């Protein structure tokens, strides 16, 4: 599917797939929805003053509301069921965000701060300065007890619930880390993917305080997600190798190299059922990949989904 106007900024997080089976995509200053159930795309109405680039979009866990952040510092909470603006505030540019639960969202900004916003309140708590760099990745684990934050100062920091002013763990890399994902079944396992000067997948066991796996992908990593059924992760990659790669964590081997994009993959998101992944590329296209089929369903011939080009891997 064509997606004209994709930002080529490595730090932006521009696509998210909600449990309502709707994909939210930020293109230039606009937000689009693609309804995967009915294969229908439409633009979300926004207020006329919204003329700056979308930098981040993130559905609430129930997908009835979402965060929409803009380059010049406006962060908004929208009700998607009626296209209504619920609340907004002015802040440094938010590059990444993650919902802790149905009410609380954490925002990571370009000035190195993280901000906690209880969306039942009109304004967030004062921000916590956690890095001198740009925050480009942020994600809570499934039970909301740990927050992982990735920055362009070549660090990943992990914070405990209720203590966001001091990191419990700090992991050092040789490049920025945008790609972060907690294991959906084990809340102590964190997958990280680093940028151009590092290019590694590292799986951290926060219970043991050590890494379990380290894989050199030989390519800048822009996104990462877990399989819910197997010991596998999928990574998306940058300018010199704009592909998706599937990895078997049992032996650290590469299972598949999924080609189709011609420029950097900016963002990826897994669907609520956990089988398909959508990728947004600087080549101005969206693609859906059938990657994580359940063991009983996986076959060598996989079908297309809706109007998108479905790229099979087996």
CATH class annotation: Mainly Beta
- Tell me the strand percentage band: over 45%
By CATH, the superfamily comes out as YVTN repeat-like/Quinoprotein amine dehydrogenase
Count up the domains. 1
- Strand tally, please? 28
Mean pLDDT: 91
| Order of neighbouring strands in the sheet with most strands | 1-2-3-4
Please report the distance between the alpha carbons of the first and last residues. Answer: 22 Å
* Unreliable runs: 300-314
Order of helices and strands: EEEEEEEEEEEEEEEEEEEEEEEEEEEE
The CATH architecture assignment turns out to be 7 Propeller
Largest sheet: 4 strands, antiparallel
Shape descriptor: globular
Here the CATH topology equals Methylamine Dehydrogenase, Chain H
Computed CA radius of gyration, to the nearest angstrom: 18 Å
Task: List the topology elements.
Layout: E1 15-17, E2 22-27, E3 30-35, E4 40-43, E5 54-59, E6 65-70, E7 74-79, E8 84-90, E9 94-99, E10 104-109, E11 113-118, E12 128-129, E13 135-140, E14 146-151, E15 155-160, E16 169-172, E17 177-182, E18 189-194, E19 200-205, E20 210-216, E21 221-226, E22 232-237, E23 244-248, E24 253-258, E25 265-270, E26 276-281, E27 285-290, E28 310-312
Parallel strand pairs: 27-28
Antiparallel strand pairs: 1-2, 2-3, 3-4, 5-6, 6-7, 7-8, 9-10, 10-11, 11-12, 13-14, 14-15, 15-16, 17-18, 18-19, 19-20, 21-22, 22-23, 23-24, 25-26, 26-27
